[in-house]
Design a protein that fits this description.
This protein is an all-alpha fold and 373 residues long. The chain has helices at residues 8-18, 23-51, 53-76, 84-134, 148-152, 156-189, 191-199, 207-246, 251-260, 267-280, 285-311, 319-339, 341-360, 365-372. The protein is globular.
């Protein structure tokens, strides 16, 4: 039979059977090339993430601030019958007014109280240093003196060195705060579009799941941030009132640093007790004991009763893992790593349970854990 009398399907079959091309080998080479490209892209991505972690932490802090604004706007919904944009605007105006009042009020009181507390703590540290030296322990170094300013600014070179360091640090801090504020405002006013810009990167069949998990992460961040603010305010007020009744100087500054220390779980409250003890030491043994005992009682009630009740719906992470995250992120990324360790652990837990345990492994452990909680 000639080729002209053969049908189209028969001609295609003959050509394919006689073709010397190795289709299996070609498919294997393509698969190997695709795997190599994926590994290369993953490696470059990890490198870029590692080198930009400080900036990513600032972006994450902006997301947390947006979660706070969103939580405040949601809380106003039953009270203020306006649209979400107007409620967010009202929240921003209220926060701006409160911040301005705090700055004006604090400008007249906080600097003097802070100078007094630093002077008292400086004197007490010098006394502690002398006691330790009598036992052969040089805790603060040979250059430590009674006057911190004299130790810092003993010569012009050291003065300008510290001045440059302080100015650079203040500039970086101000820039970071402004970026966090603006990012939070932008994210809060249009969260859906920013979420969808990430959801579009996954397969169409998986986008609904991605939205659900991201909404759950947003809920965790909202609850965590609101809970932290409540804990900070309660701790500040309680310690402020207790130290005022005991008679310690600068009770508001001591109460404020004790409240802010709750932003760093486990380690923060321990560090916050040191200034309180140093300020109470010159007043005698009785005020010192009272200050330490009262602070310990307040911190224990807050840490073991009030805190868990507030954060129960947001963060249910074993304390050891949280402490490990604080230590590791603090060692790698400094103060920002310590401050953001707990919310990172919280949303990381959600991502691991939903995406890896439930979706990839096919194990409903995450749902069982949530029901048990």
């Amino acid at each position: 039979m000639s080729e002209s009398r053969m049908g189209p399907e028969r001609v295609r079959e003959v050509v394919l059977n006689e073709s010397p091309i190795d289709h299996n080998g070609d498919t294997g080479q393509r698969s190997l090339l695709a795997t190599g490209l994926i590994l290369l892209v993953a490696g470059v991505t990890l490198f870029l993430v590692w080198t930009t972690v400080p900036s990513l932490l600032i972006v994450f802090a902006g997301v947390l601030f947006a979660a706070l604004l969103d939580a405040a706007a949601r809380a106003l919904a039953p009270v203020v019958p306006l649209g979400r944009v107007w409620r967010l605007t009202f929240v921003l105006l209220l926060l701006s007014a409160l911040s301005s009042f705090g700055l004006v009020w604090g400008a007249g009181k906080l600097p003097e109280q802070t100078r007094l507390l630093l002077k008292v703590m400086d004197a007490q540290l010098d006394i502690v240093q002398q006691h330790l030296l009598s036992y052969g322990v040089d805790l603060l170094g040979p250059e430590w003196g009674r006057d911190i300013a004299q130790w810092l600014f003993a010569d012009q070179g050291r003065f300008f060195s510290h001045a440059q360091f302080l100015l650079g640090g203040a500039s970086s801090l101000l820039t970071g705060v402004l970026v966090i504020l603006f990012l939070g405002i932008l994210f809060a006013f249009d969260p859906t579009s920013y979420r969808e810009s990430l959801v579009v990167l996954v397969r169409r069949s998986y986008r609904a799941r991605m939205r659900a998990v991201m909404d759950e992460m947003g809920n965790v961040m909202r609850l965590w941030f609101v809970g932290q603010l409540i804990r900070i305010i309660l701790m500040t007020l309680c310690v402020w009132l207790a130290l005022y009744l005991i008679g310690l100087p600068g009770p508001f500054v001591l109460g404020l640093q004790a409240g802010l220390s709750n932003f760093i779980p486990y380690l923060g409250p321990i560090v916050a007790a040191i200034p309180i003890a140093l300020v109470a030491m010159p007043l005698g043994a009785s005020p010192l004991i009272w200050a330490v005992v009262v602070y310990t009682i307040i911190q224990s009630i807050e840490g073991y009763v009030i805190g868990p009740l507030i954060q129960r719906q947001a963060v249910e992470t074993p304390p050891a893992w949280t402490l490990v995250a604080i230590v590791l992120l603090g060692a790698l990324f400094g103060v920002m790593g310590i401050a953001l360790a707990m919310p990172l652990v919280a949303i990381g837990r959600v991502a691991i349970i939903r995406f890896y345990v439930e979706d990839y492994l096919g194990d409903r452990l995450g749902a069982a854990m949530d029901n048990r909680e």
